[in-house]
Amino acid sequence: MALDTVVIAQSTPDTVQPFAELGLKLDEYARIKEILGRRPTSSELAMYSVMWSEHCSYKSSKVHLKQFGEKAPKSDALLVGIGENAGVVDVGQGYAVTFKIESHNHPSFIEPYQGAATGVGGIVRDILTMGARPIAVMDPLRFGPADASDTRRVLPGIVAGIGGYGNCLGLPNIGGEVVFDETYIGNPLVNALCVGVMKHSDIKLAKAAGAGNLVVLYGAKTGGDGIGGVSVLASETFGAGGSTKRPSVQVGDPFVEKVLIECSLEIFAEDLVVGIQDLGGAGLSCATSELASGGSGGMKVALDKVPLRDPSLSPEEILMSESQERMCAIVEPSKINRFLEICKKWDVTVTVIGEVTDGDRLEITWNGEVIVNVPPRTVAHEGPVYNRPLAQPAYINQVNSQKVNVPMPSSAAEIKAAVLKLAGAPNLADKSWVTAQYDKYVQGNTIQAQPDDSGMVRLDESTHLGVAISTDANANWSYLNPYQGAKLALAEAARNIATAGARPLAVTNCLNFGSPEDPGVMWQFAESVRGLADGCLEMGLPVTGGNVSFYNQTGAVAILPTPVIGVLGVIQDVRKRTPMSYKTSGLELFLLGETKEDLAGSEWAFLHGQRVGQSPDADLAREMRLIELLLEGNTFFAAAHDLSQGGLSAGLTEMVLRHSVGATISLSNPAIDLLSETPGRVIVAIDASKISQLQALASKYSIAISRLGTTGGDSLTINDSVISLEELRTAHTSTFPRLFG
Amino acid sequence: MRVGVITFPGTLDDRDAARAVVAGGCEAVSLWHADADLKNVDAVILPGGFSYGDYLRCGAISRFAPVMQSVIEAAGKGMPVLGICNGFQVLCESHLLPGALTRNSDLHFLCRDQEIEIVNNSTPWTSSYKAGEKIVIPLKNGEGSFQCDDKTLAELEGEGRVIARYVGQNPNGSRNLIAGITNAHGNVVGLMPHPEHAIDELTGPSAAGLGFFTSILNAMVK
After folding, report:
1. Of B93, B115, B117, B196, which is the active-site residue?
2. DSSP-derived 3-state class of residue A371
3. Residues A195, A333: contact at Cβ < 8 Å?
4. Which of A273, A730, B94, B199 is spaced 20 to 30 Å from A57 by Cα?
C-alpha cells in the first residue's frame, strides 16, 4: 500500500480525491486546500471529512444554538458551560454535577442492541471525561407504531442493549420515556442521558497544555468498527487490495468500560492528568484535534504506536475508527509512571502515542513519515457553518386552523371505557416490561425511578443531598407549534422535578429532527431552539449542553420534531421528598391548575388519529409560581403527581395503581376534565387537616385549585363510573407483554 | 468483627455490600481479586456484578483469582462466606456450592422487588430471620435460574440446604423455586436476590435484607 504523506501531497497537487464520497462539498474541499496551502493527504482528508460532518461540527445548527449562550440567564450554578464534553453545575456542599444527553438514533435502527448499548457507553464516557463518577442513566426512546413488525425487531433489541450495557457498568437506570408514533418507524430515537458527580476541584477539561507533556491512549485496542464512510477512502485510494469493509455500527464491551471507569477515577483521584478526552464519534481524529485546540495547538502523535485489534488497518482507518471504550489523556512526564501503574492494576492497555509541542500544528506520523500536519482548530472548531434556508411548512396553517373532532365520553360506561382505553394505550401503558430489564438499585442511592415523575439519586449519605432529573418531550405539540412545544417540554420536565420537592437548576437537551436540507424541518428546528432558549431565560435555567440529531427521516417523511429536554434539580434532603402516590385511605385529592379544553395534541386525539388544532401556549410565569408552590407544599403533601400525556385520566390511573389504593373522584365536566391536557397541572394528596394550608398556598402563588375527591377503596370511581383496580391494572399492564412477549 | 468484600474487575455491588455490612454492625474490609491476603477478616462477601464481563460463563474466570484460592481454603476451615448474585455464580464455579446459575427462563435481564421465604435460618447469614419468614428484596440478574441434577436437588432438599425460596410465580425458572442454598457444613451461602439493596426503605423496597448482615454479626459474636 502506498502511504500518502505530506511530502507526496505537495508534489502531487492534481491527485483526484474522493471528497464527495466522504460527504464533503466541493467548496468545503476547496477550503481545506486553502487552509493547508496544498491538497490534503488522505489521512487529513479523512479527518476533515469526519470532523466537518453534521454530527461533529453542528454546521447546520450552530447559528441557532448560539442563542443558548446569548439568552443565557444569569446563573451562579454553572461551573462549566456549553462546548466541553458536558456541562457542570454546582449543587452545593462542594459537589458538582455533570449531566448530558446524546442521541444514538441511526445506529440503533441498523443494529438495535449494539447501537443502543454504545449510545449508553458514549454518554457515560462523556461524563467520566469531566472527572465525575457516573451515577445514573436515563433513556428517552421513540419507536414506530407499537404493533408494527419492525418495532418488534427494534424495541426489544434497543431495550436489551441499554440494559446489557448499563447494567454491566453498574449504573442505575432511573427513568426515561417510551413513545410510539408512525413517523419513528425507520427512525427510532435512542437518547441516552448520564449524570455524574464530583467535587468542584476535580473538574477535568479537554485541553492539551504544556509542551513536553505526554499524549496517552488507554482503554480498548483500536479495531475496524465504526469506520463507516472512511472505507470508501481506503478502497478508492488503495484499490481492491485494501482492507475489507466492516460494519459501521460500533460494537461495545461494557466490561472494558467498567474497568476503564474505575481505572480513570483512580487516575483522577491522584491528579495525574492535565487534560482528558474520550474517544467517541470520529475517534482519534476528534480526540487529538480537540485536545490540541483546547491547549496551545501543538501536538505530535505517532499513529503507528496505537495498539490495534486488527493489524491490517490503514492510518486513515485508525484515525477514523470509532472503537469503543478508549480515552486519551495528557500527562506530565513526572506522573507517567504512576499513570501506567494504575492502568496495570486494572489490566487496561495503555500507550504513550505522542507529546504536546510548542507549535500550533497537529502533526501525525506513520513510521516516521508525516501524514497529517494541520492547524487543529481548523479541524475541530472552524468547520463550515451553514445558515440553511428555512420556511414555515405549509402544514402548520392547515393543521392549526382545524379543530379536534373526537368522540367525547358522557355516560358512565363511556367514561369507564375511555379511562381503560387510555390506561392501556401503548404511550401510557405500564412500562415495566422495559424497566424491569434495567438495574435501578445498583450503587444503593436510588430514591426514585420509573414510574415516578422524575429519577432521583442521593449524592451524600450523611447530608442526604440529592439530585432529581426528568426528560420530557411532547412531539405532538411540537408538531403543531415547535416554539411552544419546546417551552412546554421544558416546563413539564421542570414540573416533574418539582413535584418531588427538588428545585430545577439546569437544562440539557437532545434535539431530534428530520433533514436540515428541508426548509420546513429547519424551521421546526429553529423555532424549537428559539422556544427553548426563551423558555430557559424566562425560567432562569441555564442550558449546560446538548446534542443535535438531524436526518431522522425516511424519504420525504421526517420524524415529528422531538426536542427532548432534560432538567436537573437539587433536593437538600432526599428523605423529605414527596412521592408520586399515596399509601393511605381518607386523604384529600386536589388538582392544582386550571383545566381548559386542550385536546389538540392530546393522547385522546392521537388515539383517534388526529393531530390538528393549536397547541396550548406555555405560561412559564405561572409554571414558575406552581413550582414554588410545590416546593413550599413539599412539607405537607402526602403525594404529588404531574399531569401530562393522558391528562387527569392517566394521572389518576398511575396514582391509584402505584400502591393499590383507590380513589373516589367527582368531576363537573368529566370528559374534558379527564381527557384535556392543559399544561401546568398537578394532583396532590393531603391530609384533610391541611386543606386551609393548601388554600393559603394557592392564593399566595395565584394557582387555581379544585377538589377532586378522596383516597381509599379498591376502585377508581369517577362520578358514576366504577373501575375496579383489578380491571384498571389489567388494562394498564397487559399492553407491553401482549405486544412484545 | 471484620467482613471482607471482594472486588473483582467488573464487580458492581461492592460498595453496596460494604454499606450493608456497616449497617449490620460490622467493619467492612475491601479485598482485591489479585491479592490472596484476606486481611484477617472473620467472614467474606462476594458481591454482585459482572466479574470479568461474564466472559466464558458467569464466575468462570473469577474462580481462578488469587483471592479465591484463599477464600476456598478459609471456607474449608469454616469461615462464613456469602455470595450474592454474581458472587453465588462464582461460588458454584469454585465448587464451594453445587449446581449452576443459567439464563432466566424468559431470556431477559430481570430487575424487580421479589418476595422470598427464608427456609433455613441456621446459617451464619440467616440466623436473624425466623424460619418461614417472608421478605421482599430486589432480584436483578440475567442468569439467575438455579439448576442442578436430580441427585443434587434431592441432597439439597433432604439436608435442608435450601436457605431461601421465591414466593409466588417462579421469576427465572429455578428448580424448586430455589433462591439460595448453603454447603454441607452450612457456612457458605449463595443467594441470587440482593439483601444489600434492601437495608433501608429510602433506597430499597424494604429494610428486610439487613437481617443477612445482622446475622453475621451475631454469628461471630457468639
Report:
1. B196
2. strand
3. no
4. A273
d(Cα A459, Cα B201) in Å, to the nearest integer?
17
Q: How many Cα atoms within 13 Å fall on the side-chain side of residue A688? A: 7
> Around A32, how many Cα atoms within 13 Å sit in the side-chain half-sphere?
28
Give the pLDDT confidence of B56-115 residue by residue, as tens digits.
Answer: 889 889 999 999 999 999 999 999 999 999 999 999 999 999 999 999 999 999 999 999
Q: Which of A55, A106, A381, A464 is catalytic?
A: A55
Residue A193 cell numbers, joined: 442521558
**Closest-CA residue in chain B for A165?**
B53
- How many Cβ atoms sit within 10 Å of the Cβ of residue A572? 15
How far B108 CA lies from chain A's nearest CA (Å)?
Answer: 7
Cell numbers of B128, please?
436473624
* pLDDT for res A75: 85
Catalytic residue list contains A381: no
Residue of B nearest to A157 (CA): B108
What's the start-to-end Cα distance of chain B, in Å?
11
Task: Say what the pLDDT of residue A606 is.
Answer: 97
Q: A436 and B108 in contact by Cβ < 8 A?
A: yes
User: Annotated catalytic, A659?
Assistant: no
Among the partner-chain residues B10, B16, B111, the one whose CB lies closest to the CB of A444 is B16
Distances (CA, A) of A3 to A20, A154, A283, A368: 21, 41, 21, 12
CA gap A57, A380 in Å, rounded: 8
Catalytic residue chosen out of the listed positions A64, A104, A641, A732: A104
Give residue A668's identity as a one-letter amino acid code: S
Q: Convert the pLDDT of each residue in B105-120 to its tens digit.
A: 999 999 999 999 999 9
Query: Looking only at Cα atoms, what is the longest distance across chain B?
Result: 43
Looking at domain A6-60+202-380, which CATH architecture does it have?
A: Alpha-Beta Complex (3.90)
- Whether the CB-CB separation of A477 and A485 falls below 8 Å is answered with yes
CA distance A496 to A506: 14
Region B31-43: mean pLDDT is 97
Interface-testing mutation among B12, B33, B62, with chain A (most A C-beta atoms within 10 A): B12
Distance CA A706, CA A685 (A): 12
Closest to A434 (Cα-Cα) out of A685, A27, A161: A161
Scanning every residue of chain B, which has its alpha carbon at the shortest distance from the alpha carbon of A435?
Answer: B111
What integer pLDDT is reported at residue A506 of this predicted model? 96
Tally the residues of chain B: 222
pTM for this one?
0.94
The reply to whether omega before A451 is within 30° of 0 (cis) is yes
Contact status of B196 with chain A (Cβ, < 8 Å): yes
Q: Where are the domains of chain A?
A: 6-60+202-380
Cell numbers representing residue A113 in the block: 442492541
**Residue numbers in chain A where pLDDT is lower than 50:** 229-245
Residue A187 contacts residue A552 (beta carbons within 8 Å): yes
Q: Angle A254-269/A112-129 helices, nearest 10 degrees?
A: 0
Task: Nearest chain A residue to B111 by CA: give it.
Answer: A436
**DSSP character string of A83-113:** TBSSEEEEEETTEEEEEEEEE-HHHHHHSHH
**A194 near A127, Cβ under 8 Å?**
yes
Q: Given B55, B140, B204, which is nearest A439 (Cβ)? A: B140
Fold of the CATH domain B2-221: Rossmann fold (3.40.50)
Chain A residues touching residue B142 (CB < 8 angstroms): 167
Find the angle CA(A103)-CA(A108)-CA(A109) to the nearest 5 degrees.
Answer: 120
CB proximity B10 to A under 8 Å: yes
Q: How confident is the model at residue B220 (pLDDT cuts 50, 70, 90)?
A: confident
* HEC assignment per residue over A466-491: EEEEEEECCHHHHHHCHHHHHHHHHH
- Whose cell is 435442608? That residue is B160
